[in-house]
């Protein structure tokens, strides 16, 4: 990564904070942060690694926040660019996202092909590298912020550290904009959850 990494990331965070203030609801406010991590995190120079992309794969970056539903047994995907999967639900114990929620420990998985608890969640493809960060509020985990790329090794520990900051900003924004009530209403509008 170049010397321009931190200025790029901090400028993106500043922009996301400003944009989130004017968002009409909590989900659109958090989307300011998920959109920005797609734009500013990662190292495009790693795309030239011979093990970054398998034959036929094309680089893409996705992100979203999974918030724990009022029932406490599953999470609802919000503020994402996961094709046709916004408001998808997964168990709070499912694979890497569930592990992040259960342990409260952030993780970067440089190569999902060799991660023992990774499981494909996207219907549109398998990510090769992923960052998982718990979303905390008042000392408890309320969700998980994920940014992922098709290319293996696209993100590293520096990206993980920066996404922890984005997750904290997203949590404060979510709460300030009435996220829990919004989530309760969203959850009630969805079909009954089953694992």
Describe this entry's structure for a reader:
The chain has 195 residues and is α+β, with helices and mostly antiparallel strands. The chain has one domain: GAF domain (Beta-Lactamase, 2-Layer Sandwich). It has five helices and six strands, in the order H-H-E-E-E-H-E-E-E-H-H. A six-stranded antiparallel sheet has the order 3-2-1-6-5-4, with helices on both faces.
Beta strand count: 6
Which spans have pLDDT < 50 for at least 5 consecutive residues?
none
Determine the CATH topology: Beta-Lactamase
CATH architecture annotation: 2-Layer Sandwich
Number of helices: 5
The level of helicity is 25-40%
> Mean of residue pLDDT?
93
Rg on CA atoms, Å: 16 Å
CATH superfamily: GAF domain
Class based on secondary structure composition and strand pairing: alpha+beta
What is the strand content? 15-25%
The CATH C-level name is Alpha Beta
Sheet with the most strands? 6 strands, antiparallel
Described by its quaternary structure, the protein is: single chain
Number of domains: 1
The gross shape turns out to be globular
Order of helices and strands: HHEEEHEEEHH
As laid out across the biggest beta sheet, the strand order is 3-2-1-6-5-4
- What distance separates the N and C termini? 40 Å
State the gist of this model.
The protein has 195 residues and is of the alpha+beta class. 37% of the residues lie in helices and 19% in strands. It has one domain: 2-Layer Sandwich (Beta-Lactamase), CATH 3.30.450.
């Amino acid at each position: 990564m170049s010397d321009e990494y931190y200025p790029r990331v901090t400028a993106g965070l500043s922009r996301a904070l400003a944009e989130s203030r004017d968002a009409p609801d909590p989900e659109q406010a958090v989307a300011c942060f998920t959109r920005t991590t797609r734009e500013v995190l990662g190292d495009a120079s790693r795309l030239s690694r011979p093990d970054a992309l398998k034959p036929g794969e094309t680089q893409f970056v996705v992100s979203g926040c999974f918030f724990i539903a009022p029932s406490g047994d599953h999470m609802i995907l919000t503020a994402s660019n996961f094709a046709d999967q916004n408001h998808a639900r997964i168990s709070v114990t499912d694979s890497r996202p569930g592990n992040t929620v259960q342990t409260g420990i952030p993780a970067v998985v440089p190569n999902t092909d060799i991660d023992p608890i990774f499981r494909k969640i996207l219907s549109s493809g398998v990510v090769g590298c992923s960052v998982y960060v718990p979303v905390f509020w008042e000392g408890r985990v309320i969700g998980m912020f994920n940014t992922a790329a098709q290319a293996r090794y696209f993100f590293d520990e520096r990206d993980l550290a920066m996404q922890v900051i984005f997750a904290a900003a997203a949590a404060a924004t979510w709460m300030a904009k009435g996220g829990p009530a919004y989530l309760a209403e969203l959850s009630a509008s969805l079909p009954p959850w089953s694992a």
